[in-house]
Amino acid sequence: MQTLDQSRIEAFAGLIAVEAGAAVNAALVNIGDRLGLYRAMADSQPVTAAELAARTSTHERYVREWLNAQAAGSFVTYDAADDTYVLPAEHAFVLADETSPVAMAGIYSAVTAVIESREQVAERFLTGDGLGWHEHHHDLFHGTERAFGALYRMHLLSDWLPAIDGLVEKLERGATVADVGCGHGASAIMMAQAFPNSTFTGFDVHAESIETARRRAAEAGVEDRVTFEVADAVAYAGTYDVVAFFDALHDLGDPVGAARRARAALAPDGICVVVEPFACDSIEDNLTPIGRYFYGISTLVCTPGSLSQPGRAGLGTQAGEARLRDVLVDGGFGTVRRVAETPFNLVLEARGQSIVS
User: What pTM does this model have?
Assistant: First the structure.
């Protein structure tokens, strides 16, 4: 009979308690974000539950329980002497400022939306079928836009594009750019604002996202140079100086086919830009807090999404550089190199003689 280590049992039970609290807190952060509770605490001054409720037109009894949960999770601090709560300035920068380069409240909209799909995903475990992006709660689309938007604001213009030889100069002179799998169009709009001589076309199979992207372009005042079309990653039209996949290649049912289409769509001196979630090539090296999040999202969203499309590649969110390189080479690119990375992203550049599709 196996002898159990009591200390390991107790340690794991403690971990379960932490994990359950974190899971519940995902919903609480989403509530705080939706109702403006964090924004109402953004001055980082002490506030009572009654004062916060008054500021946000909410009920004090609910707000007090929410605040206590936030304090227990170290999202806010609590002063027992004054019965007040504070959202530290550093936390406000992450949770209450949507323009912050590290704004992360939106990620909880995506997380809670994904949790709502758990029954559908569990069914796919048994059938092997896919679950399309469009089948998820709409908060996934908006939460993804917000979360990725923060990363792009921090890195796209200052780090990623300059890391690719000649790309910024090409965009400054005036280039045609395809953003494949564009979602709500955050990356295309950001580039259009920075490079007024270039034109951008975003493609996505999700019609609702394309409608949102068009509204975003109009709001940003760049609709004359940014257009969005409903199109598959293997079948869009046109010739481009740059084809980009921003956190999209791994989601596709046929990533090799998408790479092949990108190569065919590129001008002879064109550049393919691929931004993907950060991953090492071996599973054991991805067993980190960030890797854990990405594997979870891959299980619930990205892999089912790929399996719902023709090709059913199921590349997964933690594909890693070697597998991504294989996809691009199999798609016909002659050279692929990593040009940048962050704890959350890999950035690859692919080049090769253009071919006829």
Answer: 0.92
